[in-house]
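User: My instructor asked us to take a sequence, write out its structure as tokens, and then describe one feature of it. I'm not sure where to start. Here is the sequence I was given:
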Amino acid sequence: MDIETLVSKLSLKEKALLFSGKNNWETYEITRMNIPSFFLSDGPHGLRKQEGKADHLGLNASRKSTCFPTAATIANSWDETLAQKIGKAIGEEAISQDVDVVLGPGLNIKRDPRGGRNFEYFSEDPYLSGKMAASYIKGIQATGTIACPKHFAANSQETRRMASDSEVDLRSLLEIYLTGFEIAVKESHPKAIMTAYNKINGVYANENAFLLREILKQKWGFEGFVVSDWGGSNDHVLGVQNGSHLEMPSTGAAGANEIIQAVQSGELSEQILDERLSELLTVLLKKKTSKETLSSNQESEHHQLAKEAALKSAVLLKNEEAILPLQRGTKVALIGEFAQQPRYQGAGSSLVNPTRLESTVEAIKDYPLEVVGFEPGYATKTASAEATLQKKAIELAKQADIVLLYLGLDESSESEGMDRTQFSLPSNQLELVSALKQVNPNLIGILSGGSSFDLSFDRDLKAVLTGYLSGQAGASALLDLLTGVASPSGKLNETYPIRLEDTALSDHFPANGKAATYFESLFVGYRYYQTAGVPVKYPFGFGLSYSKFNYSDVKIGDNGVSFCLTNIGNFDAEEISQLYVSTRSTRNFRPKRELKAFVKTFLKKGESKIIMLPFDAYTFRYFDTETNQFEIEANRYQIEIGSSSEEIKLSATIEREGTTPEGKKQVEKYPHYFSGQIKQVSLSEFETLLGREVTKREENLARRKLFENDTIGEMQFAKSVLARLAYHILDYKKRRSEKKGKPNLNVLFIYNMPFRAIYKMTGGQIDREMVMGILMIVNGSFWKGIRFTLKARRHNKKISKKILEED
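Assistant: Let's start with the prediction itself. The structure tokens for your sequence are:
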């Protein structure tokens, strides 16, 4: 039976049910029409299929799965083949756990280092993000599992994530925040995509027709289905109308009833409903279900793949006096709690229960080093014995030739549900570094963390190796690099600024008001630092090797550029070559240079290879707001080949014909965008670029009426004494968990959750009408709200019985 015929035989109630989940992770089945239920699971760097009571934050235990390094880590490998292998392994494990849809990878842009979920995202650069995501998706879907890249789009902060409006100019939206998704969709054809929580220019992502129909469907040719983030559906009917297919998690009968009522009233045409349902079922019913158990051999293979991924993604930032690799028999002290209890993944919905977990304290026993002992040196949780921990570490350091010092951001510093509040490492770690330096100058820092942070303390370190969040096999992978089993080959997917004050958004992130104004436009990450002339600690694309490489003989043609790469060092090693494009224009402001191609090449010592980097559809384009499409400006372009965004080895120029007549010069209109001095951009300059006024931040913090898209944290301003009391209880729990060093993700989620999400996250127990009653109570009409809520509850039960009872 073809899809159209199948849809025509479904009742309106059956159709409506298929647009929402039946529980936290599964879709509804229609048994009489042989439409099965499908299972969706978190899985950006490993599956998180829960066995007990389900939740979306990783609070309850899940089945064991391979914990690969996070996306922010793998992006440092710049290795598309590796990313595809990881995707395939995740897809295989999905099959073994009866998971149909893997919710990942995440490819939002790391707009600021303090983004709480940066560890789940690839890069500050859209081209690198898109290429890596496309490879993951190809690997996942090669197994027959559906990949679901996320969060579409402009989701770059956790604060007020379900109620924030990303106000971004059209050119930046398309060039920076959508290009990664475009590459992923066009190159790997994902069968699903997840929308973001936030609004984009005033319209929620899950009901944004411009994003979902005009861009995703019509311009990019997307043929999959769209699913909301969990609780991210604002208006279910409008979402379906404008291109969303599946509201998750279950809203019980309430969501289905909204669809039924909208069709019966004429608000939503059944023709559009059938069109969306056909799009959804075309994907789901073509999926081949298979029952395969992961063998013990596969489990071991996946662990080795996790190790390979960690090894190829670690970045050597400093190697003074060539102190690395360590020589056989070197007397070393292991110091740092992370050597015993590794920080190997992020916190929140991506939390994986690993099949096994290596620690450096145990793994180092297999390496030819003389280990004099281990001391934690600091505590990641509050500890009254901090001074004792440090003293013991100092005494141990005196006994060693070299100290392997494990440092990094802890779970309380970066997590889903909150943005980072500081840019530096915890003070107890920094104090430890300073103290150890006094007794042993040979300190080697091994770092953990999902995004960049202040590395000014590296002046006290002879070498720095960052593993980011390196997954379950990170310990042995990093030891392989430290001992020279392999040469480090990773390069940074993001910039490490010298100080927080140097970042473009130093005083503007996260946005705490109703809107996040993306005033920096195109100038994200290295695009800002290099254009504005701001020195950085470590640039985008930077990473050292134990070997050395020579670049020569650049040749440029209409279709690409070639050059000779030679390994002139003493190690077999891999080098990541990067192609950047730049041009000067008075018509369009542009960053100093932009990444447009890259390749990772393995060379034996003394070996040379001719490397070819082709131009593609993204190499010279920009979005022209006058023609409302991507164009190529007639101009001379500088083609630069580098080992990082600041270390350019070769360059050549090429003339390109334009695709549009020469437009007006805009230097006077956007002076600070042309100079890259983003911190000097005025409100009027940004509003001219945006094409409208920005949402003004509410300065009046007095008691006021709250609405369904205000957050529960805003109950501090509620008229009701009970609501304000509830806020203070919630705030107390939030602060207490932060003080303990382990954020309460459930509290954080509730704190930033809008009232409408109560209806979206309670499995149909509370519907929209009941939320309206709750808001009456919050707004000071206690008895009226109670009566309204109870009446709505009786009505909700009646509707639930009518819709969910067996036919």
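For the description part of your assignment, you could build on this observation: The two ends are 22 Å apart (CA to CA). Try explaining in your own words what that tells you about the chain.
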